[in-house]
Amino acid sequence: MTGPLRVVIADDQALVRAGFRMILSADGIDVVAEAVNGLEAVDAVRRIRLDVVLMDIRMPDLDGLEATRRIVAGGDDDPRVLMLTTFDLDHYVYAALTAGASGFLLKDVTPEHLVAAVRMVRAGDALLAPAITRRLVERFAHRDPAPARHRDLAVLTPRELEVLRLLAEGLSNAELAAHLHLSEATVKTHVARILAKLGLRDRVQAVVLAYRTGLITP
User: Fold this and answer.
1) Which of 148, 185, 196, 211 is most enclosed, with most CB atoms within 10 A?
2) Which residues carry this modification: 4-aspartylphosphate (predicted)?
3) pTM of the predicted model as reported, rounded to 2 decimal places
4) In the CATH scheme, what is the homologous superfamily, with its name and number, of domain 6-124?
């Protein structure tokens, strides 16, 4: 993906928006809009070409969860949503991931991690903080009735099922490559095929699906 990375920051706290704008702009990321609530965030997505939305969960008028649902409902061409939360186990975050968010960040994230996270989510080839996301999914996935294995998993090869299982356990591409004695390029190919076969946007949705279908259990 080429061209400047375009971001909107949605948060009802002016200081948070200003701080994130300063950090991202200093690294060459174009903050094209700010929003004080979910309604403004959805409107920005409809008006402006964007790559990533930094979305606070708790905002007035329309919260980040419902805003995320509306944004991702448009299809694959819509921007990726990176959720912002004060608490690493905020119960809204699991719902946000199932609604289509591509990951989440704590608001006390370091500048380096913020920039890296936005770039990772835009690229779509890495899951931010996989161990944290896995812990979150493990905590909340059991609230859904345990389904039988999703029939779509039958389209995966045994190797792809193995990759999906390890991915859902929080392994990065480098860790997957080392565990399976493969190159990182081969791992990326497996992950891309898994996402394509299952119709998933990114690795976060793959983690959620692995838990919800019973491929792995908390």
Assistant:
1) 211
2) 56
3) 0.73
4) Response regulator (3.40.50.2300)
